[in-house]
Write a structure and sequence with these properties.
With 61 residues, this protein is mostly helical. The chain contains two helices and no strands.
Amino acid sequence: MADDLKFSDFTTGEKVRIAGLVARMGKRGLADDGTGNVDLSDLQRRVERIERAALRRKHKK
């Protein structure tokens, strides 16, 4: 997460979306067959996109 963002900088909807994405990352990790070859990059990009939106909104004030 970006250094100058706090949890309170996110809207309720963004918090829920991030929680859902983190849960999906965990589910993918649990479904791993032991090889450690789990691709989470698509979900991580979605979280980063939400973080960038919150950061833009914070600096706009």
